Amino acid sequence: MSLYIIGKLFFHKSQCGEITAVKAELAKTGAAFFEGIDDMDLGFIKSRIVSLKPELVAEPQVDFRISATPEDIDATRLWIEAQTAITSGRAEMGSTKLGQIFTLLLSFKPISAGGVALFDGSIDSIFYSNAHNCRRYFSRLLRENWDNMENPLIIWNWE
Q1: Cβ-contact 101, 29 below 8 angstroms
Q2: pLDDT in tens, 140-157
Q3: SS3 for 22-35, per residue?
Q4: Are the C-beta atoms of 135 and 158 separated by less than 8 Å?
Q5: Number of domains composing the chain
């Protein structure tokens, strides 16, 4: 089985000019891509985020996926690399590609809210909190084998 990581970011209308900069920073990691994303999965993610914050439905949005290469659609290799580095004590979360992406996602102020799904079949749980708590939750998840975790949708906002 494979681990898939896809997400959706929402921006305040006043921050539209920042979308290109945010995408560029994510793209620098070499593991965040903005094409080749399943619309059905994105629809589910958007519906869950908007059900928690209905005012976001009209805000500018960016869809993304995380994978080892542009041709891949899964993130299994990235997860294993991050987990190995972190559980062995050789690295902090932000020093791995996957950790860098989550650190960027959860620290960009132009992003008013976002959601990231980590799954290998279906999404089993939803974790909704502020960016700080979502960062801690993701860090805890990295200590688990991806095929044993709860397949969460992690949703955060700044307000």
Answers
A1: yes
A2: 898 888 888 889 999 998
A3: HHHHHHCCCCEECC
A4: no
A5: 1
Q: How far, CA to CA in Å, does 96 sit from each of 65, 69, 79, 148?
A: 16, 15, 9, 21
Which range of residues forms the domain containing residue 113?
4-157
Q: Which ranges of the chain have pLDDT less than 50?
A: none
* Terminal Cα-to-Cα distance of the chain (whole angstroms): 36
Rounded Cα gap, residues 61 and 74, in angstroms: 22
Question: Are the CB atoms for 93 and 99 separated by under 8 Å?
Answer: yes
Please tell me the pTM assigned to this model.
0.91
Query: Rounded distance, CA 93 to CA 83, Å?
Result: 9
